[in-house]
Every structure is written in C-alpha cells, then in structure tokens.
Amino acid sequence: AAILKKYGGLYFDLDFILCKPLDNLLEQYDFIGGRESYNHFYVGNALIATHPNHPIIDKYLNLMITNLNPETATHYCLNAQDYLSWRVLCFGVGAFTISILQNIFKDNNKDKIFNPRVFYGYRHDNKEFYEVNFCLDEQVYGRDPLAGSWLKDKYFINEAIFSLGDLYSCDNCLDTKNFIISIFSEFTTSIPPVGLNDTQTLS
Question: Of the four, 20, 143, 183, 197, which is 20 to 30 A from 75 by CA?
Fold first, then answer.
C-alpha cells in the first residue's frame, strides 16, 4: 500500500489470473477495484489500480498502521471475535472496503468499483463462480482463485475454495458474520452502499 500511495500503479495477487490487458481501464479511471461476490458487497484487494496519493489508498495504509498498534487500533479490531474477523476487518478486504466507503469519488476522482464478473470471475447470468473458461467471457478481465491460502492453519473452513461469501452458508461462522456486518453498518446506511451496486458494468 505504501508503494501504491507514493507511485500509484497496479497491484494484483501472485495467483491472480489475468485474461487480457487493463490498459483501457487504467486510462479511464483514477482508482479501480472490484467486488468479490454477488453475495456481499466487500471490495476485494486481489487487484488494485490507482493513481499516486489517492485518498482511498492513503486511508487504507493509515488504517492498517493504526490497527497494528493496540493503543490506537479501532474498536472493532480490539473486539474482533476471532482470527478471521481480525484479519478481514483490520488489514484485509474489510479495511479496504471501509477505506473505499469513506473516500470514493473524493477530490473529484474518477473511481470505479466493478461488479464481481469483471475481476472475480462470476457468471452474470446466474451469479455463480465460473469453474472453467472464464476468460471466454468478454466482460471478464481476470479472476482471483480465492484459494484462501492466508487462512490455512488458522481458519481454513474446508478444502473447497474459500471466500468471505462462505460466511453466509457457514453454520459455525454466524458470530463472525454478524460482527463484520455490524461494523460495516457504521460506515454506510445502505446495503450494498452507493457506488458498490450490481448494476455497474464496463462502459
């Protein structure tokens, strides 16, 4: 995040599968992100494109630094229910989404949060995860495999592909799900928030 803040540029996870160049998108927007799933409104951090000194990245970096220190950490980090909610809310897609909610379109920036089809390989017709051939969809620019490697040995629910959307079908995750939802409610009055809706498509 510190490098993105100073220089701007494009970040994506090492296992992110890119289907085609992003040049046309990078030329249009000051900040680019994508929702992880149609089941929730979290913005994934597997792919981030930004101009230097963008207020979203500035907030994200400052929020992570704040949460690393127990004396300055946000109340939801200090009261996290478990390892998953701590990682998600304090440093992961939770902190990233909060940063976006507070700073999207700030300073008249042209920011874009794409629907889950574009960067996370979800089918538009039935809103399910593409198993194969996702690059054949002309609206898909790439896909994060959502392998959940950062959860292994800590909170790996099962051998299947994991994403935060699984919280909605995980019987043992109810407390974590409710806690995360309650925190997001502090930053938005609409679910999904304005700017993170399903109707956004490539222009």
Answer: 197
